[in-house]
Write a structure and sequence with these properties.
CATH class of the largest domain: Alpha Beta
Structural class: alpha/beta
Strand order of the largest sheet: 4-3-2-5-1-6-7-8
CATH superfamily of the largest domain: Mur-like, catalytic domain
Number of helices: 15
CATH topology of the largest domain: UDP-N-acetylmuramoyl-L-alanine:D-glutamate ligase
Oligomer: single chain
Strand content: 15-25%
Helix content: 25-40%
């Protein structure tokens, strides 16, 4: 597998080339495996992964053999491919990638196009009945959109990846609306003036605050209780996802599940069982706890800050690192009031990571320590003996910190996507 994975990861450097021609050609060459199962597409600026994970857990609880495709992975490549909650074995992923490689080379497919086709091939061979597919970037021209969904989810729309998707929320909403299909169901957390952009596609959109009415009650570190009213009835459930946005994402997943015919009992069971690593995830470390969150854009940072308030967390030590192309000033503006001191670092495997020196001026009013790696950052943190600390920013940073906390080995390959 190493040779094929090294070849695949090297293709990250060729960048992203939006469009569906190559991925459709690639899927056709391997027999269009995506036609063997139903597809749910989950797009949005933030919350895609957690919403997809909760929805997959609900479908599984309903007795359906359910696949889950997510990106990026945190630590291991095969995290991207799960069936009934289990990562597919490396041997299966390796065998499928080896078969896919000559077709990918013949079509000049990009990294994410290959990964999407690989997921379709794996899920078909695993006998999946339905696959919940997290959209990579945007929607209209994302390679996952080569798959025909039976239902689509758009969690929200915010400013991120503006160089590719456009520099207004209206432009980004238009791109994300590309995963909707006329006459087919959809659920969304998009509100206000952007909602007509989604409805113009002709999809049967149910939106939070209009057709969908969730009432949430925080359970603190245990998550939240959610009462959801929708045209098809109502359902009440508990979710371990933290923060108001976690409960909101779980509500969207529940609405999607109910529209797919999942029973209320399975919605409750799946919601209670679903977790999502690296997003408001609490791990024990050195007698205390560390909160991990991949908040890397302004909306994500504001959601994290709101969750810290909800959890009654006082200012705490913060390990922070982010990609250099992000809106760092806005991200830091949301997080700075919650930091007692800051340890700046970078994901060493990510060439896009901002150097800690460039981040320091954004934390002018907080004590700052600069480090060159996640290992060094954790060593500095350990000296503080804090009962609770926060690591946030780039998901690639989370992906390097998490195995250090768990005593696992990392993947060691350069990360771009």
């Amino acid at each position: 597998m190493d040779a094929d994975l090294n070849w695949l990861f090297a293709r990250q450097r060729f960048g992203m080339h939006p469009g569906l021609t190559r991925v459709r050609a690639l899927l056709s060459r391997v027999g269009n495996p995506q036609r063997a199962f139903g597809v749910v597409l989950v797009g949005g600026t933030n919350g895609k992964g957690s919403t997809a994970a909760v929805l997959a857990a609900m479908l599984q609880a309903d007795g359906r053999r359910t696949a889950l495709f997510t990106s990026p992975h945190l630590t291991r490549f095969n995290e991207r491919f799960r069936v009934n909650g289990q990562e597919l074995p490396e041997s299966e992923v390796a065998a499928a990638l080896a078969r896919l490689r000559p077709h990918a080379e013949a079509t000049d497919a990009t990294f994410f196009e290959i990964v999407t086709a690989l997921g379709a091939l794996l899920f078909a061979e695993a006998g999946a009945e339905v696959a919940v597919m997290e959209v990579g970037l945007g929607g209209r021209l994302d390679s996952t959109n080569a798959l025909d969904p039976v239902l689509s989810v758009i969690t929200n729309v915010g400013l991120d990846h503006t160089a590719v998707l456009g520099d207004t929320v209206e432009a980004i909403a238009t791109e994300k609306a590309g995963i909707l299909r006329s006459g087919l169901p959809a659920v969304t957390g998009v509100v206000g003036g952007l909602l007509p952009i989604l409805r113009a596609t002709g999809a049967g959109v149910w939106a939070l605050g209009e057709e969908l009415h969730p009432q949430t009650r925080s359970l603190g570190w245990r998550g939240a209780e959610v009462d959801l009213e929708l045209p098809a009835g109502s359902v009440a459930f508990q979710t371990p996802l933290l923060g108001t946005h976690g409960a909101r994402n779980a509500a969207l997943a529940a609405a999607a599940a109910l529209r797919l015919g999942v029973s209320p009992a399975a919605v409750q069971q799946g919601a209670a069982a679903a977790t999502w690593p690296g997003r408001l995830e609490v791990l024990p470390w050195r007698g205390g706890r560390i909160l991990l969150d991949g908040a890397h854009n302004p909306d994500g940072a504001r959601a994290l800050a709101a969750a810290l308030v909800d959890l009654q967390v006082r200012p705490l030590p913060l390990i922070f690192g982010v990609a250099e192309d992000k809106a760092v000033a806005e991200v830091v503006r949301a997080l700075r009031p919650h930091a007692s001191r800051v340890i700046l670092t970078r994901a060493v495997l990510s060439p896009r990571a901002a150097h800690p020196d460039t981040l320091a001026p954004h934390f002018a009013e907080v004590p700052v320590t600069l480090t060159d790696s996640p290992q060094e950052a954790l060593a500095v943190l350990e000296a503080y003996s804090a009962p609770l600390a926060l690591v946030c920013g780039s998901l690639y940073l989370i992906g390097e910190v998490r195995p250090l906390l768990l005593g696992h080995s990392g993947e060691g390959r350069e990360r771009w996507q």
